Amino acid sequence: MQIKLNSPLDMHLHLRDNKMLETVAPLSSYSFAGAVIMPNLVPPITTIEALLEYKKRIIDSTCRDTFEPLMTLFFKDDYKYEFLKEAKKYIFALKLYPSGITTNSEGGVSSMDIESLRETFEAMSELGIPLLVHGETNGFVMDREREFGSVYEQFAKNFPKLKIVMEHITTKESVDLLDRFENLYATITLHHLYITLDDVAGGMLKPHLFCKPIAKRPEDREALLRVALSAHPKVMFGSDSAPHPVDKKESCGCAAGVFTAPIALQALSQLFEKHNSLDNLQAFVSQNAKKIYNLNPPKKEIILEKKPSIVPKSYGDVVPMFADKELSWSIKLVE
Ligand code: NCD
Ligand code: ZN
Q1: CA of 207: how far to CAs of 15, 110, 119, 145, 319, in Å?
Q2: Ligand 2 centroid to 240 CA: how many Å?
Q3: Contact 321/190 with Cβ under 8 angstroms?
Q4: pLDDT of 237-282, one tens digit each?
Q5: Nearest CA owner, ligand 1 atom 6
Q6: In this structure, what DSSP letter does residue 114 have?
Q7: CB contact set of 77 (below 8 Å; sequence gap of 6+)
């Protein structure tokens, strides 16, 4: 059995910088036609200059593959209209992090109060710049995303022209929000379709499955699966592949992030086949994003076949999801 995917897109990707960038960028550029690149470097990407230099380093690392990095700026509530008007020529979106909520988000926004965000949100609405959001409060870890729901509602109601993407959703409440507000969209990761908190901490602790937002309950995963497998038109695949060196994961104080980029399409094929939904995979990994953002990614065809392969134990010093395990699908050809 084979399937062909046209121009798959990863709508939420961490590529890091320097040596890590050189290790991981080719693993995404091999099988994806483009990706939305997260700005949470140290320091975060907050200027057009830094963004363009980072984009060049990404392109230099992608081995001349056909691959379009869609760049994002780290949201600051003091960005003004004139700055954003200039930035719009180079950026895909702004990414908003609540301060300190995840890896390298210390410079994020400290209050979700609408009034302090209004000027920037209005400028973005007018300029047509999408807002990508890491939606978690600093409450109890299992409740953070659900508690952030009211913030999403406020944002969506008060800025109806702003395209708002709830990044890496993990709860059934977030899924429900999609149908309540026209301007709310979502990305869903591979790992949140596969795992629940039980896989992370129900037995021996699995540091390579520890991420933000933390994996939730079986009923939450069911809700995510329902909209992903049916390719609900407001959901897009965003891996949130977030590499950390093995010593930062297998340590006392494990960094958050699951590394999935090199196995994402194979594992998605396996999952969609298991649920008799392979016909919807193209929409989930490309078509929905193209429609939502009016994107025209470079042409690239990925042929996947049902042929078992063993996932490598590591890529450089990064351990992927399913390390040393068998996946039933492989990439046969990229052209
Ligand atoms: C991400 C990272 O490592 O940059 N970590 C994660 O657990 N997902 C940041 C993020 O997207 O939250
Ligand atoms: Zn992320």
Answers
A1: 20, 28, 40, 21, 10
A2: 4
A3: yes
A4: 999 999 999 999 999 999 999 999 999 999 999 999 999 999 999 9
A5: 257
A6: H
A7: 109, 116, 117, 119, 120
Residue nearest to atom 5 of ligand 1 (CA): 257
Q: What is the per-residue pLDDT for 62?
A: 96
Q: State the closest ligand 1 atom to the C-alpha of 12, by its place in the atom list counted from 1.
A: 11
- CATH code, 17: 3.20.20.140
Number of domains in the chain: 1
Ligand 1 atom at minimal distance to the Cα of residue 14: 4
pLDDT digits (tens, 9 = 90+) for 214-225: 999 999 999 999
Question: β-strand 301-305 against 330-334: which pairing, if any?
Answer: antiparallel
**Which amino acid is located at 287 in the chain?**
Q
Q: What is the DSSP letter of 109?
A: B
Phi and psi at residue 207, to the nearest 5°? -60, -30
Could you give the residue numbers annotated as active site? 240
d(CA 183, CA 181): 6
How far, in Å, from the CA of 123 to the mean position of ligand 1? 27
Which residues does ligand 1 sit against, CB inside 6 Å? 14, 40, 102-103, 134, 211-212, 240, 242, 256-257
Which residue is closest in CA terms to ligand 1's atom 4?
103
One-letter amino acid for residue 309 of the chain: S
* 214: its two tokens: 């933390």
Distance 181 CA to ligand 1 centre (A): 26
> What's residue 63's pLDDT?
84
| Structural domain boundaries enclosing 194 | 2-334
